[in-house]
Amino acid sequence: MSDGNCQSDVLEPPCAKKIKKDEQNENGVTESVLELKDFIPSKILNNNTNRKTVCVQGNFKDKSGVALVILEKNAFKEEELDNKGYFSVESGLKTFFQNDIYGNFECYPNPNINGVKTTIIYPATDKHIAKFSQQELHIIQETPECYEKLTLPHLEKEQFNLQWVYNILEGKSEQDRVVHNNKCDKEGFVLVPDLKWDGLTKETLYLLAIVRQRGIKSLRDLDGTHLPLLKRIRDEGKKAIFDKYKVRGSQLRIYFHYQPSFYHLHIHFTYLRHEAPGIYAEKSHLLDTVINNIEMMSDYYKKATLPFTIREMDTLFDVYETNGYVQKIKSDNIELINK
């Protein structure tokens, strides 16, 4: 529990360790390791050739429930571009063709630097399946009235379970990944690597600041009373990231998503060189712009019309379609795996 003082802890994560099957972690919670050799794929939900990611739906042998496996090619680490990494004696080349000064090859580097980032969601819900599926997108212009009558009642009923967020805030999970921890009840937050980041590769740096206050769902709830919290997150977050990763504040993109993927206030910190998902105008709201808007008008985000993207499998889409704001586009089915 917090003592109410705005004290901060910067925690250095220990070396990663593998948890044995059905072993208790440091918090006494029993965890079991899921093995990819036991995964039985059934459907490709999304194959993004631009981001080099694929999401596969299936199930694990001898386990009930649906599972999602997300595979992502890692970005190159600059420290591995030397004769101990990609240019070592262990790297092999397969020749496709050579013509004069040009050659086209496929490189087979040391497996230790050729891993594939893997995320497993198990058991996955229908909301997870919708979130990771390839879908048609639409933009909604959400007025304050639409928020109160359509969006808010829906999200209060249908939002994702937030227990994983509370586990982080209460020190029950992911404590070895915490980069910064301000324990103040009102202005405190925890800074952790985002699920999409491996926590190591500077080129794809991506962290989340999760506020300790409960009940602040999104941008819509912010007003002048939250300015000290927002400025603390900005300033302490920048310092913590520079101290640990040597990335300056001027090289960070600090922003909110609207709509967010989960409705407990959080702020994204990404490296400017990294084109992270959701950084574009229809989704992203820079923290400094949000602070400036609230300083000009305390209830700005309660009065503003806010655009957001919505996908056709989102249950919120059905709400807006029923009320005549958007119409579904017929699309082809996603490829099934017939193996």
From TrEMBL:
<comment type="similarity">
    <text>Belongs to the HIT family.</text>
</comment>
<dbReference type="GO" id="GO:0000290">
    <property type="term" value="P:deadenylation-dependent decapping of nuclear-transcribed mRNA"/>
</dbReference>
<keyword id="KW-0508">mRNA splicing</keyword>
<dbReference type="Pfam" id="PF05652">
    <property type="entry name" value="DcpS"/>
</dbReference>
<dbReference type="Pfam" id="PF11969">
    <property type="entry name" value="DcpS_C"/>
</dbReference>
<dbReference type="InterPro" id="IPR011145">
    <property type="entry name" value="Scavenger_mRNA_decap_enz_N"/>
</dbReference>
<keyword id="KW-0963">Cytoplasm</keyword>
<feature type="binding site">
    <location>
        <begin position="257"/>
        <end position="268"/>
    </location>
    <ligand>
        <name>substrate</name>
    </ligand>
</feature>
<keyword id="KW-0007">Acetylation</keyword>
<feature type="binding site">
    <location>
        <position position="174"/>
    </location>
    <ligand>
        <name>substrate</name>
    </ligand>
</feature>
<protein>
    <recommendedName>
        <fullName>m7GpppX diphosphatase</fullName>
        <ecNumber>3.6.1.59</ecNumber>
    </recommendedName>
</protein>
<comment type="subunit">
    <text>Homodimer. Associates with components of the exosome multienzyme ribonuclease complex, such as EXOSC3 and EXOSC4. Interacts with NDOR1.</text>
</comment>
<dbReference type="GO" id="GO:0008380">
    <property type="term" value="P:RNA splicing"/>
</dbReference>
<keyword id="KW-0539">Nucleus</keyword>
<dbReference type="GO" id="GO:0140932">
    <property type="term" value="F:5'-(N(7)-methyl 5'-triphosphoguanosine)-[mRNA] diphosphatase activity"/>
</dbReference>
<feature type="binding site">
    <location>
        <position position="164"/>
    </location>
    <ligand>
        <name>substrate</name>
    </ligand>
</feature>
<dbReference type="InterPro" id="IPR008594">
    <property type="entry name" value="DcpS/DCS2"/>
</dbReference>
<feature type="binding site">
    <location>
        <position position="196"/>
    </location>
    <ligand>
        <name>substrate</name>
    </ligand>
</feature>
<keyword id="KW-0597">Phosphoprotein</keyword>
<dbReference type="GO" id="GO:0000340">
    <property type="term" value="F:RNA 7-methylguanosine cap binding"/>
</dbReference>
<feature type="active site" description="Nucleophile">
    <location>
        <position position="266"/>
    </location>
</feature>
<feature type="binding site">
    <location>
        <position position="194"/>
    </location>
    <ligand>
        <name>substrate</name>
    </ligand>
</feature>
<keyword id="KW-0378">Hydrolase</keyword>
<dbReference type="InterPro" id="IPR036265">
    <property type="entry name" value="HIT-like_sf"/>
</dbReference>
<dbReference type="GO" id="GO:0005634">
    <property type="term" value="C:nucleus"/>
</dbReference>
<keyword id="KW-0507">mRNA processing</keyword>
<dbReference type="GO" id="GO:0006397">
    <property type="term" value="P:mRNA processing"/>
</dbReference>
<comment type="function">
    <text>Decapping scavenger enzyme that catalyzes the cleavage of a residual cap structure following the degradation of mRNAs by the 3'-&gt;5' exosome-mediated mRNA decay pathway.</text>
</comment>
<dbReference type="GO" id="GO:0000932">
    <property type="term" value="C:P-body"/>
</dbReference>
